[in-house]
Write a sequence for this structure.
């Protein structure tokens, strides 16, 4: 077996981790389901265009389940604009097309409805059939199904791939 320069090996690994994005495909049928919001003490301010759930909220849509300690939804013209969820941590799970379950936890999830992008920040952990990804901040594009680390170039990011799941 050939010896590889450890500095080169670490550089290659860091480069792969920085540019790595993983593809996960949620059930398409979930997107056709009603969105159900449940929470204690939620207040909808119609004139302002927001619903706040200071005592926590649960969002369900098909196999999607999200639980947060705090939620703020902004809406305009009967359309959702943003969904901000905070927790210690916020928990999310969803069944994928291959019937595996993806689990996500983060201290904050900010979903921008128009662009279908979710920004996950604070102790982000994503577990799926491929392995585990962790970092300080990640962006998940629901349209392209791309997940990537965002923020400062020096942010810690870790990816574990289970070879038995290839």
């Amino acid at each position: 077996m050939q010896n590889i320069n450890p500095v080169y090996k670490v550089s290659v690994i860091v480069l792969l981790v920085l540019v790595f994005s993983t593809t996960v495909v949620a059930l398409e049928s979930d997107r056709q389901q009603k969105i159900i919001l449940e929470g204690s003490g939620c207040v909808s301010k119609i004139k302002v265009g927001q619903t706040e759930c200071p005592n926590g909220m649960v969002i369900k849509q098909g196999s999607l389940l999200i639980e947060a300690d705090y939620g703020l939804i902004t809406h305009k013209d009967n359309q959702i604009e943003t969904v901000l969820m905070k927790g210690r941590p916020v928990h999310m799970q969803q069944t994928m097309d291959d019937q595996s379950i993806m689990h996500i936890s983060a201290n904050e999830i900010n979903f921008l409805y128009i662009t279908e992008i979710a920004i996950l920040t604070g102790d982000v952990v994503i577990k799926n059939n491929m392995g585990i990804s962790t970092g300080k901040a990640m962006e998940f594009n629901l349209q392209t199904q791309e997940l990537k680390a965002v923020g400062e170039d020096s942010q810690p990011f870790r990816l574990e791939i289970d070879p038995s799941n290839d």
